[in-house]
Amino acid sequence: xxxxxxxxxxxxxxxxxxxxxxxxxxxxxxxxxxxxxxxxxxxxxxxxxxxxxxxxxxxxxxxxxxxxxxxxxxxxxxxxxxxxxxxxxxxxxxxxxxxxxxxxxxxxxxxxxxxxxxxxxxxxxxxxxxxxxxxxxxxxxxxxxxxxxxxxxxxxxxxxxxxxxxxxxxxxxxxxxxxxx
Length: 181
What we know:
The chain is built from four helices and six strands, in the order ααααββββββ. The protein is an alpha+beta fold. The protein has two domains: about 5-15 and about 25-70, no CATH class; about 75-180, Nucleotide Exchange Factor Grpe, Chain A, domain 2, CATH 2.30.22.10. β4 (about 165) and β5 (about 170-175) form a beta hairpin. The longest helix has about 45 residues, at about 30-70.
């Protein structure tokens, strides 16, 4: 409380003591003091409400940031594992081409499934991109353009070179695609 507020309060108390019990007189000085108190009360109340609202917004913002941080905390580790997943994809594709690799294929497929299941549990999701989908520069990375085999494939995806992945709702690797011109 400032010195001015204290003096005003003392002045108000002194005037109230001087008045007789049972009779309240509305003098201009009493009304002025009362108005000053009401103004200061409204000012402080408004300041308190604004501060409280600001604090609530801060709590919401920090809790949202914390949740987002937990969702993407593994981003670097998961990004480092993506080339290994790509190697598994290529290895499985090559082994499946040979006739004598069925046992090897089965073993590789078990390891690959376990790895992808673990990555799924951590929130990593492969982006679904198919031939004939419309090219979206915000969600795809065009590696090259080739003449479209048919007129309906112009501006659309012709081939997917590398899978894209999302962690939560953020893209951590864009799918690399070939589009038709």
